[in-house]
Design brief:
Elements lengths: L21 H4 L6 H22 L1 H8 L4 H8 L3 H14 L2 E4 L2 E4 L1 H6 L11 H4 L4 H5 L1 H7 L10 H27 L8 E5 L5 H9 L4 E6 L4 H10 L6 E5 L12 E7 L7 H14 E11 L10 H13 L8 H11 L2 E9 L2 E7 L11 H4 L2
Parallel strand pairs: 3-4, 3-6, 4-5, 6-7
Antiparallel strand pairs: 1-2, 7-9, 8-9
The chain binds S-adenosylmethionine.
S-adenosylmethionine binds next to α10, α11 and β4.
């Protein structure tokens, strides 16, 4: 191990000719970024515990409260609960004045189970199984995830799509306001890998007379059936269970095709093939909605997208980072035009792209697909 100077900030006499780089030796960087990662582990599990214990829901019910009455209400240890609450204050999820805790707006909106944009169920499932993160070094050594979610997709996706529904419905509903679905009646929609079908539901709720074909794997599609029924849309939806790479799709028959958060787990070749499938399924002038968490082209300016790519590598067989440039290239290669990128809610970006009225650049479609 190299020996650090006891007074690194005093080493003003160093020059480039002697030893080291003076601007580095004089003032070493702080260790804060390392501590931030170390404490990030505890922060995550504190939030998981708070949600599991129902801290946010209990404060929403009781109103501003100190740890004692809150612990009595929840039948837990007041001393331990107070430490959890203090940590939640440091995260910005609770306010504390004179030992009385109150929800912040962030907690009300995202962390209460019936909050308007609740992510309460999402926190535990979004990173994937804990064991995969504990084994990340092995995954990098071997190039294989020991227990990828692909081994039992229904077991992983059932809780995930339950948890993500409010977030994706919110994204899709806001996108619809931007794209004017309410002024576009009688659309025929295809939602591939629909989960609980938030994207198809948002379109049907805004666009009068529209109908949808909703696809997902057996074991997951039942959740879409139930959700569509609960929202009174069953008479407008047909369900097509099966693998979205292989189910039969009538070519040229949909006004809108949705690929909602399905590409990042697929790997580049299969995601590109899905984009091409979507193109074939669209009517001329039909629209693709491709929603995902993309990384910037240099894979360093959009930490959310970059880290989402690592989450895919840690948990799936083929999934990885998708950059904006890669997706744009697939869209272009498939023949799409009028490609736009919208961000209806934070981080959740959606490519909106159209199949041209005739073949791109006046050429027949077939010319494009053997490229
Ligand atoms: C991250 S979820 C996205 C769900 C939904 N589209 C949304 O945006 O909320 C991915 C979905 O794709 C489905 N899926 C994964 N592989 C699939 C396949 N080969 N065929 C059909 N569906 C698949 C999963 O079951 C899951 O419901």
């Amino acid at each position: 191990m190299t020996v650090d100077s006891p007074y690194p900030e005093m080493k003003k006499g160093h020059t480039m000719a002697r030893v080291g780089r003076p601007w580095r030796d004089r003032k070493p960087p702080p260790s804060g970024p390392v501590w931030a990662i170390v404490q990030g582990f505890g922060s995550y599990w504190t939030l998981v515990a708070a949600i599991e214990l129902g801290v946010f829901d209990a404060i929403a019910l009781l109103g501003p409260t100190s740890a004692g009455p809150l612990a009595d209400h929840m039948s837990v240890s007041a001393r331990h609960l107070q430490h959890v609450c203090d940590a939640l204050v440091t995260f910005g999820f609770l306010d504390q004045v004179d030992d009385v805790y109150e929800l912040t707006e962030t907690a009300e909106r995202y962390l209460c189970t019936d909050g308007p944009a609740s992510m309460a169920a999402l926190v535990r499932v979004a990173p994937g199984p804990l064991a995969n993160w504990e084994q990340l070094a092995d995954t990098v050594r071997t190039g294989h995830v020991a227990q990828p979610i692909d081994d039992d997709p229904a077991a992983f996706y059932r809780p995930l799509v339950q948890a993500t529904f409010p977030t994706q419905l919110r994204a899709a509903s806001r996108l619809g306001l931007r794209l004017g679905w309410s002024r576009r009646p009688d659309l025929r929609v295809l939602d591939l890998g629909a989960g609980r079908a938030p994207w198809a539901i948002a379109i049907l709720e805004q666009s009068p007379g529209s109908t949808a074909v909703v696809n997902d794997l057996p074991g997951v599609i039942e959740l879409a059936v139930r959700t569509v029924d609960d929202r009174g849309l069953a008479h407008r939806v047909e369900f097509q269970p099966g693998d979205f790479h292989h189910i039969e799709l009538e070519p040229g028959s949909f006004d809108v095709v949705v690929l909602g958060h399905v590409c990042r787990t697929e790997g580049h070749a299969r995601a590109r093939a899905l984009v091409a499938r979507a193109f074939q399924a669209l009517k001329p002038e039909g629209q693709l909605l491709l929603a995902d968490y993309f990384a910037d082209n240099d894979r360093k300016h959009n930490p959310f997208g970059v880290q989402m790519g690592l989450t895919m590598v840690a948990n799936t067989e083929r999934g990885e980072t998708l950059t904006n440039a890669q997706v744009c290239r697939w869209l272009d290669e498939a023949g799409f035009h009028a490609i736009r990128l919208l961000e209806p809610i934070g981080f959740n970006q959606v490519y909106v792209a159209a199949r041209p009225a005739s073949g791109p650049h006046g050429r027949p479609m077939e010319d494009r697909h053997d490229r």
